[in-house]
């Protein structure tokens, strides 16, 4: 198997993603060189931080067109946290920012309700709930409804097509799409690399390595 | 879900545990505790470098590095972090977050700069507070040794405004005593700030954890003594390095009958058992597959 490319665009702790990939038996390569996308077979787009800054960095490093071409070729791409949000057409974080536009829909903010203890950012473990799609044969193969993942985010994706939603998560009054899948594109709002067994299972499914 | 975060106070090569942040006794090697807690469903781990200011931080970075290779939950490192460069070093070693107290009070800009460089999710403001006779809370620094005159509740709010993503609130009065958390300290901060609050210091039994969630409104709970002694009870031989006060381990008396901590009301508990108790009380916690089976 070819190394798994972890896109380095200056945001987030890429080491933990690389460690999880290595633990699962695959070889990670962290790189900020868009040319590597040409013949990559598996790519992870991580990310922590602000949507606008992320898009600006991707543009500055000439990643936007190569990422779109890579996704259009039908090769597997996993977006984690902000990386998932970047798949969408636009985000309301700060000003309105255009995203990569790989999946129809937008990114909106969670509502805070201090009195009920609903704080934003949403930090901690929350369960995955099935939506309309089956999990078997997808990146969630082997997971069970209610399995919890570790989240840190203030925004979430609202895909326009229900068919792109693989799992939802409820926080406060919001029931948001926490795992998105469209063809070989997969996005996970939580951090699978920090989500113990179920998280490693998701990464393992994406990498197509089965330890279980 | 409420996060349960085992806290490992590190001194040199060992995990230690004191009372009121003082009188540290060696309880064993971190390599014993960290995997044990990970397997039992720890939601995160917190490594506290108790002597960072005296010895520099290389040992802890190594411990974190080894832990991060195999344990896939968030890791927080606290103690002796004074600059953006220090934060970068700790994150590079494998930590996901840093918790800062002394340096943040000396230079509040560090909270803002840390959040700008690495994101708010990385920056935990650590508050070590004691209750004053008039009911206010004062921040202490340098492992609870130095007074600052700074109001803990106001500082929590200010730091959240500067970009701290979480507040770790430790009661120095209750720390290691087993008499329960300072519910008022936790509640005042939790009601004042919009970011998650991690309660720390004082757990003597599972009921204390319940209370700090339901009454203290904690979003997460840091626990040391009751889990460490619960872990030690489950082990035959405890590995430790011959450094520091190791008398406790040498005496090899069953943990639950050891008078010193019984007197202080420490009731050892296993992490999985604690989570079961919390679930029975209607508190949402993360259950691992093994619990469910």
If you had to describe this structure to a student in words, what would you say it looks like?
The complex is a heterodimer of chains A (212) and B (293). Chain A has 212 residues and is α/β, with parallel strands linked by helices. In chain A, 21% of the residues lie in helices and 32% in strands. Chain A has a single domain, classed as Rossmann fold (3-Layer(aba) Sandwich), CATH 3.40.50.880. Chain A is globular and about 50 Å long. The model of chain A has no long low-confidence stretch (mean pLDDT 94). In chain B, α7 (152-162) runs parallel beside α8. The longest helix of chain B has 11 residues, at 58-68. Chain B starts with a strand and ends with a helix. Mean pLDDT of chain B is 88; it is low at 256-263. The chains are: A alpha/beta (212), B alpha/beta (293). The A-B interface holds A 11-13, 15-16, 19-20, 23, 48-49, 112, 114, 117, 119-121, 123-127, 148, 150, 152, 193-197, 199-200 and B 1-3, 38, 41, 43, 68-70, 72-74, 91-92, 94, 96, 118-122, 165-166, 190-191, 194-196, 217, 219-220, 286-289.
Reconstruct the topology from this structure:
The complex is a heterodimer of chains A (about 210) and B (about 290).
Chain A: E1 4-7, H1 14-23, E2 28-31, E3 43-45, H2 51-60, H3 64-72, E4 77-80, H4 82-85, E5 88-91, E6 97-98, E7 103-109, E8 122-127, E9 129-130, E10 148-153, E11 155-159, E12 165-171, E13 174-182, E14 185-188, H5 196-207
Chain B: E1 3-11, E2 14-19, E3 22-28, H1 30-39, E4 45-49, H2 52-55, H3 58-68, E5 75-78, H4 84-93, E6 97-100, H5 102-106, H6 109-118, E7 123-131, E8 137-141, E9 146-151, H7 152-162, E10 166-171, H8 183-192, E11 197-200, H9 206-214, E12 220-223, H10 225-233, H11 247-250, H12 259-263, H13 271-280, H14 289-292
């Amino acid at each position: 198997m070819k190394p798994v490319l972890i896109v380095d665009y200056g945001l987030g702790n890429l080491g933990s993603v690389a460690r999880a990939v290595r633990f699962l038996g695959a070889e990670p390569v962290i790189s900020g060189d868009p040319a590597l996308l040409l013949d990559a077979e598996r790519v992870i787009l991580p990310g922590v931080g602000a949507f606008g800054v992320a898009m600006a960095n991707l543009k500055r490093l000439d990643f936007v067109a190569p990422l779109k071409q890579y996704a259009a070729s039908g090769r597997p791409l996993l977006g984690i946290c902000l990386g998932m949000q970047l798949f969408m057409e636009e985000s309301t974080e700060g000003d309105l920012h255009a995203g990569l536009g790989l999946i129809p829909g937008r990114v909106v903010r969670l509502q805070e309700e201090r009195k009920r203890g609903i704080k934003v950012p949403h930090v901690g473990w929350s369960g995955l709930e099935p939506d309309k799609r089956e999990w078997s044969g997808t990146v969630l193969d082997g997971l069970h409804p209610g399995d919890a993942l570790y989240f840190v985010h203030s925004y979430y994706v609202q895909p326009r097509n229900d068919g792109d939603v693989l799992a939802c998560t409820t926080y406060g009054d919001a029931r948001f799409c926490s795992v998105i899948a469209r063809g070989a594109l997969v996005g996970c709002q939580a951090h699978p690399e920090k989500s113990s067994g179920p998280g490693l299972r998701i990464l393992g499914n994406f990498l197509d390595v089965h330890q279980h | 879900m409420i996060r349960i975060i085992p806290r490992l106070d590190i001194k040199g090569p060992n995990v230690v545990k004191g009372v009121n942040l003082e009188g540290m006794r060696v309880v064993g090697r971190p390599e014993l505790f960290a995997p044990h807690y990970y397997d039992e469903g720890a939601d995160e781990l917190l490594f506290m470098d108790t002597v960072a200011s005296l010895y520099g931080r290389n040992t802890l970075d190594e411990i974190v590095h080894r832990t991060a290779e195999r344990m896939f939950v968030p890791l927080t490192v606290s103690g002796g972090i004074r600059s953006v460069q220090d934060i970068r070093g700790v994150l590079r070693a494998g930590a996901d977050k840093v918790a800062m107290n002394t340096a943040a009070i000396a230079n509040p800009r560090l909270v803002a700069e840390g959040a700008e460089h690495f994101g708010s999710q990385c920056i935990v403001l650590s508050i070590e507070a004691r209750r004053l006779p008039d009911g206010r809370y004062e921040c202490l620094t340098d492992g609870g040794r130095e007074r600052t005159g700074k109001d803990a509740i106001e500082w929590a709010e200010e730091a959240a405004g500067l970009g701290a993503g979480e507040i770790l609130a430790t009661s120095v009065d209750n720390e290691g005593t087993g008499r329960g958390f300072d519910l008022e300290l936790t509640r005042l901060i939790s009601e004042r700030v919009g970011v998650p609050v991690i309660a720390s210091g004082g757990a003597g039994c599972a009921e204390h954890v319940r209370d700090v969630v339901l009454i203290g409104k904690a979003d997460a709970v840091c626990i040391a003594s009751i889990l460490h002694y619960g872990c030690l009870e489950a082990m035959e031989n405890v590995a430790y390095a011959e450094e520091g006060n190791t008398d406790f381990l040498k005496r090899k008396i069953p943990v639950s009958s050891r008078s010193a901590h019984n007197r202080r009301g420490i009731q050892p508990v296993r992490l999985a058992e604690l989570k079961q108790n919390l679930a029975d009380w209607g508190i949402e916690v993360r259950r691992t597959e093994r619990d469910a089976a």
